[in-house]
Amino acid sequence: MTHKGWSPPSNRSLTIPFPLPVRASLLINLLLLCGGAAILLAHPQKYAVGVTAKQAPQTSTAKVIYVNPNIGTDTVADNSQSAPYRTIAYAMQQASSGTAIQLASGSYTNKNGEIFPIVVKQGVILRGDESTKGQTIKIIGGGYYISPTLSAQNVTVRAEKDSEISGLSITNPNTRGTALWIESSNPTIKNNTFSNSNREGVFLSGTANPKIEDNIFTKNLVNGISIAKMSAGEIRNNVIDNTGIGIVVSESASPAIAQNRILKNRQGVDVGGDATPLLRNNIIENNRENGVVATGNAGPNLGTKESPGQNRIRNNGQYDIYNVTRNNTIFAVGNDIDLKRISGRVDFVNTPATRS
């Protein structure tokens, strides 16, 4: 970025022709003897003599651990792409913050020795192939996790603070199974596929504050994403289709839900309890029952005068917006909505609500 009145220094050095006059040569030697080296180091281009300054090569210090369920072996031998580990669970034991665990194509299941739930440790990256959203890298299974906020759960993967999960396909076929659990942490979850889980693709609880973007959620039995307790975070640019409820927001959760395509589910977005999600630039269409539902004391924000919603909420089976709260008015300024398919108090101009 170039600021007005300033331009970056030229890459060309100041070159002094050779041979140097005797006095100039003595001057350079005197500078070096008297601390002039510090000046030369501080201003390498200004004082360069016959040398063009070049940027020092950048080296990466990130450690990569390779895993392949087909040819790998869980041993203490040096790990490499040609000599990978067999299981994610074993690789995770060797990983520390800043490590990337690279998964090869294949199925990661308990038959191959995986131990569930797989815990992605703090600061660790678990990655597969982002370009295909993990279609050939499948993690399937589940195990018991005791959530400090919601007791016993059956979970495939759990993500800890500052971790990242990308380019994987994750499924929990077990009874009430959740593919990914995020408990009071802030991972980045991107370019994955969450499909065919017995309950939902992702569950947020506690004070979870993740970034969940560019994923596919499809054919999960109950919900695509469940957001509970005091969770927040960003749910952005995901596709959620052919599942029970696309996104469920409950209790005191307050996520930002933006630029998602929530299509062909039983219900689009269900907001309950005291939840106050912000919805912007979403497409919520062709869900069998309702587009957006508010119950309890929920207050979803679909747009105000200062911040128009720009959501497209249309062609849902019963209502596009269904407000069944007792006293709350839903603000929904600046959206593409069929006004004939609204039930309950909805403010499209952001004026004070009129109580009946």
For the termini, the CA-CA separation is 55 Å
Strand count, sense and closure of the main sheet?
A: 11 strands, mixed
Principal-axes shape call: elongated
**Tally of helical runs:** 3
User: If you compute it from the alpha carbons, what radius of gyration comes out, rounded to the nearest whole angstrom?
Assistant: 28 Å
- The tally of strands reads 32
Percent range of helical residues? under 10%
Work out the strand percent: 25-35%
Arithmetic mean pLDDT: 86
Unreliable residue stretches: 1-59, 352-356
- Could you say which structural class the secondary elements and strand pairing correspond to? mainly beta
Structure description:
The protein is mainly beta. Among the domains are: about 15-55, no CATH class; about 130-265. It contains 3 helices and 32 strands. The strands form 4 sheets. Strands 4, 7, 8, 11, 14, 17, 20, 23, 26, 28 and 31 form an 11-stranded mixed β-sheet that branches. It has a 10-stranded parallel β-sheet with strand order 3-6-10-13-16-19-22-25-27-30, with no helix packed on it. A hairpin with a 3-residue loop joins strand 7 (about 145) and strand 8 (about 150-160). The chain is elongated and about 65 Å long. Residues about 1-60 and about 350-355 have low confidence and may be disordered.
